[in-house]
Amino acid sequence: MPRYVSLTETANLLATVGRVLVIGCSGGGKTTFSAKIAESFGLEFQSLDRDVRWLPGWVERDPREQREIIADMVHRSRWVMDGSGASSFDIRLPQTDLVLWVRVPRRVALLGLLKRVSRFYGSVRPAMADGCPEPLPDREFLSYIWNFEKKYAPIFIKQIERYGPNVPVAVLHSHREMDRLLQLASQPHARKGG
After folding, report:
1. What is the CATH number of the domain that holds 50?
2. CA 127, CA 110: separation in Å to the nearest integer?
3. Which candidate, 5, 35, 70, 76, has a CA 20 to 30 Å from the CA of 44?
4. 20 forms bridges with which residues in the sheet?
5. Are the C-beta atoms of 93 and 129 separated by less than 8 Å?
């Protein structure tokens, strides 16, 4: 079982650690959340979609090359990495100080996707690779979101247990919890570890 931590413990950790992994279902708000963390705590913002996976025209980079890029990224000293690709957890988790799992309900993720598409359709959103304009979601992508908890969450748990059994994991079930975490972690007492 992953080493789950409370919101208060997470706030204290977030204020002091250097390497934060943000995972979760698409549409849940993890990219926006990651960018806020990076800005609030002076961490390098790394996006798997923008920096690793995609080349212009929605061409997926070779998997071996993706792993090489990730291996370089995780050895940097201060980062927040946005991305849920479980196939690279073996590289990322051992170098991570804290996992933030954005685990919002399905309806929230679908609504988040709808908002994202309505805002960015046809243009490249900030955390996406150049030349990859926001498309309309296809059936496969909607199915990923719809089935995330049943099909993918168990894989995440197994991978965390295998590659990061001692890494603290905070599960955030709502945007309100994400905002509360940032608020708590930004308070002076959190930075002192108390």
Report:
1. 3.40.50.300
2. 19
3. 5
4. 80, 98
5. no
Predicted TM-score (pTM) of the model is 0.94
Burial 20-59 (b: 16+ CB within 10 A, else e): bbbbbbbbbbbbbbbbbbbeebebebbbbbbbbbbeeeee
Tell me the residue range of the domain where 151 lies.
Answer: 3-186
Report pLDDT digits (tens) over 160-192: 999 999 999 999 999 999 999 999 999 876 555
* Cβ-based burial of 191 (10 A; exposed 0-12, middle 13-18, buried ≥19): middle
Residue 81 lies in a domain: yes
| pLDDT given for residue 194 in this prediction | 47
Q: What is the DSSP string of the chain?
A: --EE--HHHHHHHHTT-SEEEEEE-TTSSHHHHHHHHHHHHTPEEEEIIIIIIEETTTEEPPHHHHHHHHHHHHTSSSEEEE---GGGHHHHGGG-SEEEEE---HHHHHHHHHHHHHHHBTS--TTS-TT-PBPPP-HHHHHHHHTIIIIIHHHHHHHHHHH-TTSEEEEE-SHHHHHHHHHHHHSHHHHTT-
Q: How many structural domains compose the chain?
A: 1
Report if residue 194 sits inside a domain. no
Average pLDDT of the residues in 128-135: 96
